[in-house]
Amino acid sequence: MKQSQMLIPTLKENPADAECVSHRLLIKAGFIRQNASGIYSYLPLGYKVLRKIEAIVREEMERAGCLELLMPAIQPAELWHETGRWDIYGPELMRLQDRHGRDFALGATHEEIITSLVRDELTTYKKLPMTLYQIQTKYRDERRPRFGLLRGREFIMKDAYSFHADEASLDERYKKMYEAYTNVFTRCGLDFRAVIADSGAMGGKDTHEFMALAAVGEDTIAYSDSSDYAANIEMAEVTFIPKASDEAMLPLDEGQAKQDGQALIHVQVFKDNEDQLVAVLYAAGDEVNDIKVKNALNATLLEAAPEAMNWSQNDILTHFDNVTILADNGIKNIVNGVIEASGKTLHFNVNAARDLSNVQFADLRMIKEGDPSPDGKGTIQFARGIEVGQVFKLGTRYSEAMNATFLDQNGKSQPLLMGCYGIGVSRTLSAVAEQHSDENGLCWPTALAPFAVHIMPINMKNDEQKTLAEKLYQELGHQYDVLLDDRNERAGVKFADSDLIGCPIRVTVGKKASEQIVEVKVRRTGESMELSVDEVAAFIEGHLS
Amino acid sequence: MKQSQMLIPTLKENPADAECVSHRLLIKAGFIRQNASGIYSYLPLGYKVLRKIEAIVREEMERAGCLELLMPAIQPAELWHETGRWDIYGPELMRLQDRHGRDFALGATHEEIITSLVRDELTTYKKLPMTLYQIQTKYRDERRPRFGLLRGREFIMKDAYSFHADEASLDERYKKMYEAYTNVFTRCGLDFRAVIADSGAMGGKDTHEFMALAAVGEDTIAYSDSSDYAANIEMAEVTFIPKASDEAMLPLDEGQAKQDGQALIHVQVFKDNEDQLVAVLYAAGDEVNDIKVKNALNATLLEAAPEAMNWSQNDILTHFDNVTILADNGIKNIVNGVIEASGKTLHFNVNAARDLSNVQFADLRMIKEGDPSPDGKGTIQFARGIEVGQVFKLGTRYSEAMNATFLDQNGKSQPLLMGCYGIGVSRTLSAVAEQHSDENGLCWPTALAPFAVHIMPINMKNDEQKTLAEKLYQELGHQYDVLLDDRNERAGVKFADSDLIGCPIRVTVGKKASEQIVEVKVRRTGESMELSVDEVAAFIEGHLS
Predict the structure, then answer these.
(1) Residues A95, A175: one domain?
(2) Residue B377: inside a domain
(3) Which residue among A42, A74, A153 sits closest to B154, beta carbon to beta carbon?
(4) Are residues B309 and B188 in the same domain?
(5) How far apart are CA A480 and CA A540, in angstroms?
(6) Which of A25, A57, B232, B400 is the most exposed, fewest CB within 10 Å of its CB?
(7) Please, are residues A112 and A83 in contact by the beta-carbon 8 Å criterion?
């Protein structure tokens, strides 16, 4: 492609409203343009990258035995009423009426549509399992669209849905999709972790999120420095339990004065969905993890209720029969500890083995950096991540609500077991840009680069340079996507644009064109060398393959 | 692909609501499913065909030097206010509000968005010309969605927009796109005509519509039986003017009795946008063409006003100074004609040369079957057509409204000249299905077929048949998209499904499998023969290439 005929509107200045690296560079390098808050156009360079990601996704989905289809964005409200999500989805779901006043949703996701499609078709175990996917535009009216393509309102997703007769089949598919996702993000050149995630509101079971590591990420990941263990910080199990000290146990509440070095226990109070008060005891310096408390109680709702208790001395362990007391494993072996709440000391010389024998212990705290990894390998570190994919065992949440059943081998009607699997295609584009850049611009991985090679005659008015550049453009064009900067611009402008766009290899045709010598530069490493024209193809092949 | 693992939900019965061949067969053969009125899902087979059409469109656009990009479906109302189309587009434009109450349109077309994108970029003649295109989902809330994908509310279009500094450049691009469209529809196997169309409401100049010929088409085309002349019936020029008879002229209004064989002239009355009355004289048996009258008058609006005149004898040619009188060329040489209006005779012995010398003559009638073709070659025939594409010289309609200007070679600011070019991608799919079927199902052209070869072992429980079928599946799979019907269904069901789906070649593996003999059948012609396994590949290559 000749650059004079392309639309690559690079900017000299940083765009004022860009909030992160990828947002800034994708606009500055002319890959995308904003049309409204959270709504973008992909200009030719951006669209080329997007199509390469789509091709990788498609290849891996086909390899994993998924079938591609395409569902509509406009979805009748009736289907969303069947699952109850018309009412519970909230303002993120964009809605509209047609000319007859009928309600429709703009698809934020496609569980309802796909379930309505298959309930008429997958009616016997003989047709199971089946996994269907689409690459399609999704709509979510984010409260606060930001970071360019990272949190947009109109974006491109690959969403897949699998249907099964039994858990074993769902498990197998989940594993296969997990592997396919690992392949996709690896091929896209992402530094990512598959993290254990919270299945919470979706009502399912197992779920992993694929997180591209990046400081701008909105989620915190706890990962092992020595294994592939990773989890959303809220989901990371704490297995480490401090040992008991060899101090002698002192009598409870005797002495009445806090000693230096005594272990401190804090109390946090919650109210569950049945208004039952819950007091959680945990080691000072730790942080209670609401999700773990909720799971320990099997509660559907949990609210902090710090004002609900009127503390006085010596009361938590003895005077509150109507309060459920839970304790974090971190104080399981505590010796002569002190319980404090709301700034008051409640008990002295608390010994878990003696005084907390009736209390339910569980893992109730947030994991911390430095904790041992739950898989026994290495130490926990924190990182920020951008969610680029998720695999999810939905179970029968949708099939039961929408009456999508099949006849099993015994002729018995059963709800379909379902899994769902998403990849943020446009978000992946941004995540790659977020990870692959330097102070001069983007540095695309070869698999996604809009062009593999950028040929740069320094002076198009010089016949030798022009002729040699065009010869290279022809020759290399047989094998690679090549961009030829045939513009009559100053060399400085052309180099700056080239760095900004970030093709993996640049071939500069300058003064030594007359000697058939060019400069070849690797964008990512900055490595650069003079080569004779005959050596260029071999160098590029060696580098890009 | 193994059929047991595909989703091909064929139906035994015709769908009750299907209104035309393509709608019926695409549903019956399991290519599409309706989700709501005018809103469809493309199941795996349908989506495979759609992707093949997209690939052809993309190749021809690239070859014509167009740049691909992707614009959003959600478009801010502000842009539509700039062109005034927010108010004039009517209920076909789907509209919604975001959570902040801001107005958006769901893109029915993208003139506003593309013009807003380029007005910041294409600011000098040096960057012109440029043609940008996208393949994208469009939304139009049709008053009466019907015929399956032919008139849907959510559909897929390729839309291209070109930008130019002068008319010559726009003309050249128009010609190039016309050729590219001819290539696209030819490669898709469509029987089509490029017809001269009405640029009417869009405010542009030249325009051609590409019409796939089909009885279900909503437009009537006038075409020559001996050349490539074709036009929308309203646009077809009538060049034929009957010669004068050699009768002697009789005095006007003398005799007062109609003679057998006298030529009859009718009068039709209109009111224009300035309430001026217009009477059109034309030969009985012809039909007045409103568009031609409007153009002759240079009027923006024209309404029939049959009650506006109070006729009495001998008045039209003498008593109505306040009425504009126009006459169709068909009565230019009339001799001793009779003028009638509203059942009354107004004049006898009208002779154009004598009595209509002050009247403006023009081509004002609809063309008829049997008229000479306006290009002088052959005779006009009528056909019905489905509009699958349109090329259009927009001129400065949008660039002026949206202030999209460039500096010309003299440094003078000028509005960009624009062209726009659309292909109905999903409609093309239906149009091909409409043209390529027989009583048993679809007959896909090779270029669009979801699978090139359908291998059909009659009995999967017969080891010889199964083994031979799988061997052919492997071997032919290296070169073609092959579908293997590995289902344990009755032969009758399998054959019926195969005819319905309509792959170009079927290889049936039956009783002669033990002799390494199979039956090969060409779907379109019904031609069928027994071949030894070794001959199959060569036959298929010969047939499909």
Answers:
(1) yes
(2) no
(3) A74
(4) no
(5) 10
(6) B400
(7) yes
Whether residue A296 is found in the same domain as residue A416: no
Whether B443 is covered by a domain: the verdict is no
Indicate yes or no: CB of A74 within 8 angstroms of CB of B153. Answer: yes
Going through B120-153 in order, the beta strands assigned E by DSSP cover 130-139
Q: What pLDDT sits at residue B496?
A: 97
How many domains would you assign to chain A?
3
Which of B239, B270, B197, B279 shows the shortest CA–CA distance to B367? B239
Q: What is the CATH number of the domain that holds B487?
A: 3.40.50.800
Say what the pLDDT of residue A301 is: 84
Looking at residue A200, what is its pLDDT? 63
Q: Name the band, by pLDDT with cuts 50, 70 and 90, for residue B202.
A: very low
- Domain identity same for A182 and A143: yes
Residue with tokens 């004609």: B337
Do B69 and A139 make contact, defined as CB atoms within 8 angstroms?
no
Which contacts of A251-255 are long-range, i.e. CB under 8 A and separated by 24 or more positions?
A: A251/A349, A252/A317, A252/A347, A252/A348, A252/A349, A252/A350, A252/A351, A252/A354, A252/A355, A253/A314, A253/A347, A253/A348, A253/A349, A254/A348, A254/A349, A255/A348, A255/A349
Question: Residues with Cβ < 8 Å from A176, sequence gap 6 or more?
Answer: A64, A65
Pick among B7, B13, B144 to test the A interface (most A CBs inside 10 A):
B7
Q: Domain range for residue B425?
A: 15-235+382-434
> Of A434, A460, A484, which closes a domain?
A434
* Shared domain check, A319 and A294: yes
Q: Which residue of B has its CA nearest to A71?
A: B41
Please check whether residues B226 and B107 belong to one and the same domain.
yes
Which burial class, exposed, middle or buried, applies to B488 when counting CB atoms under 10 A from its CB (0-12, 13-18, 19+)? Answer: exposed
Residue after which a domain boundary falls, among B408, B434, B460? B434
Q: Do A71 and B35 touch (CB under 8 A)?
A: yes
Structure-token pair, residue A486:
């045939």
pLDDT score recorded for residue A202: 46
| CB pair distance less than 8 Å for A35 and B72 | yes
Q: Under an 8 A CB cutoff, do B70 and A143 touch?
A: no
What CA–CA distances, in Å, run from A451 to A2, A224, A448, A458, A482?
11, 37, 8, 19, 5
| Residue A313 counted as domain residue | yes
Q: What is the pLDDT of residues B255-269, one digit of tens each?
A: 766 667 788 999 999
CB contact under 8 A, A74 and B47: no
Q: How far is A10 from chain B (nearest CA, A)?
A: 10
Task: Please report whether residue B367 resides in a domain.
Answer: no
- pLDDT tens digits, A332-341: 999 999 999 9
DSSP lists the bridge partners of residue B190 as none
Looking at the fold, whether A349 and A404 belong to one and the same domain comes out as: no
DSSP class per residue in B216-241: T-SEEEEEESSSS-EEETTT------
